[in-house]
């Protein structure tokens, strides 16, 4: 999409650009992701109005394998190395931030497949490698064990992608029969919970991040697992824990949103004449400066994230898994990607003037979406402090995740 937009604008003005885009990385999963772009854009109105991915589009994304990019090959997944995974998520996020978010969110859960009990893995992905598992933020949740069965009660919010999910991984306190407790997950069919709404937002509106409840739901043996299986397990594809993968994935979504914003501004500048003005935006010196700054910021953040992703992939392949220092740099690069993307979109929004304030304009959507990205936990500025403490030796880099 990017090359078409920018190149067409240059050609309209008699400039013949060097064809650098032909040297982009190319592999089947990325071709699939890019191939969905037009269809995703065509569904954008429906995605925004219904606040979820349309069922037929979600089904086709599943069948194309885009929710199982990190799933082990033995279970029917692509088991992509991190740089390839991020390029796919970025491409989908550029088409629509909500769809990119959902594909990334579900994709990361599949990273822990090889760390789950074998029977549970078989239940989830053995017969259906296209399975999508959603999670959610817990409130007053508890699962009490009685004769080997856990009875789950509680309330969960922000379950991104739950509308097209097959299963839910409900975070909860596990109360064991012997009286001990630990935090964990209960893996339950989506059809077994009471699905509510609770997703009245402006940004990432189409993620279907709704709420759900359970009251004494029986969780079969083997479906209640300690949280470390999800948080700390380093999957085959990347050798990284889920926390770092969520951060990297959302960084890629942010970069996709910011890319769309920049290209939309370039397109807008060709014809827009601001009110009470006598020249187009494309002739405005301040637009030239701001656009160049946005482009530089975007490329810098993206290059940093992909460079560290490549390093982590090399370490995973050649040394068993990424080291503590590499993980620290990945946390920094991912946080920087999200927050720098926010800065880029803010600049584009400013340069677009009043065009960007209407809810039917792509720049407005990019503005709302990126600020939903930067408000969530993986993008919080506190991650800079965590990295800084590790860099000066106050904390171990092995604990950065």
Structural overview:
This protein is an alpha+beta fold and 401 residues long. It folds into three domains: 2-126, Acyl-CoA dehydrogenase/oxidase, N-terminal domain (Butyryl-Coa Dehydrogenase, subunit A, domain 1, Orthogonal Bundle), CATH 1.10.540.10; 133-229, Butyryl-CoA Dehydrogenase, subunit A, domain 2, CATH 2.40.110.10; 242-399, Up-down Bundle (Butyryl-CoA Dehydrogenase, subunit A, domain 3). The chain is built from 14 helices and eight strands. Strand 4 and strand 5 (181-189) form a beta hairpin. Helix 2 runs parallel beside helix 6 (82-95), helix 10 packs antiparallel against helix 13 (362-375) and helix 12 runs antiparallel to helix 13 (362-375).
């Amino acid at each position: 999409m990017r090359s078409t937009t920018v190149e067409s604008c240059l050609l309209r003005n008699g400039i013949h650009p060097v064809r650098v885009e032909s040297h982009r990385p190319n592999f089947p999963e990325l071709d699939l992701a890019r191939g969905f772009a037009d269809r995703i854009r065509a569904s954008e109105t429906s995605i925004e109005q219904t606040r979820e991915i349309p069922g037929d589009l979600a089904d086709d994304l599943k069948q194309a394998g885009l929710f199982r990019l990190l799933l082990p090959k033995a279970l029917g997944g692509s088991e992509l190395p991190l740089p390839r995974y991020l390029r796919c998520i970025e491409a989908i996020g550029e088409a629509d931030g909500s769809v990119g978010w959902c594909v990334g969110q579900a994709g990361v859960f599949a990273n822990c497949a090889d760390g789950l009990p074998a029977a549970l893995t078989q239940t989830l992905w053995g017969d259906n490698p296209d399975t999508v598992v959603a999670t959610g933020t817990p409130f007053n949740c508890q699962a009490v064990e009685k004769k080997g069965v856990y009875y789950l009660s509680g309330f969960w919010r922000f379950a991104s992608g739950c509308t097209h999910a097959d299963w839910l991984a409900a975070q909860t306190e596990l109360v064991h029969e012997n009286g001990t407790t630990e935090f964990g997950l209960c893996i339950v069919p989506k059809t077994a919970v009471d699905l509510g709404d609770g997703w009245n937002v402006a940004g990432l509106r189409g993620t279907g991040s709704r709420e759900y409840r359970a009251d004494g739901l029986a969780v079969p043996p083997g479906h209640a697992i300690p949280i470390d299986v999800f948080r700390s397990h380093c999957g085959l594809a990347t050798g990284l824990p889920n926390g770092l993968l969520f951060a990297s994935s959302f960084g890629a979504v942010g970069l996709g949103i910011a890319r769309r914003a920049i290209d939309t501004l370039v397109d807008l500048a060709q014809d827009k004449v601001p009110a009470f003005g006598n020249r187009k935006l494309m002739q405005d010196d301040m637009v030239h400066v701001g656009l160049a700054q946005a482009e530089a910021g975007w490329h810098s953040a993206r290059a940093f994230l992909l460079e560290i992703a490549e390093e982590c992939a090399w370490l995973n392949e050649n040394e068993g898994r990424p080291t503590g220092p590499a993980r620290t740099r990945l946390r920094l690069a991912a946080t920087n990607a999200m927050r720098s993307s926010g800065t880029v979109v803010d600049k584009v929004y400013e340069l677009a003037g009043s065009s960007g304030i209407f809810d039917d304009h792509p720049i407005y959507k990019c503005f709302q979406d990126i600020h939903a990205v930067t408000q969530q936990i993986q993008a919080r500025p506190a991650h800079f402090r965590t990295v800084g403490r590790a860099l000066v030796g106050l904390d171990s880099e092995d604990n950065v995740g």
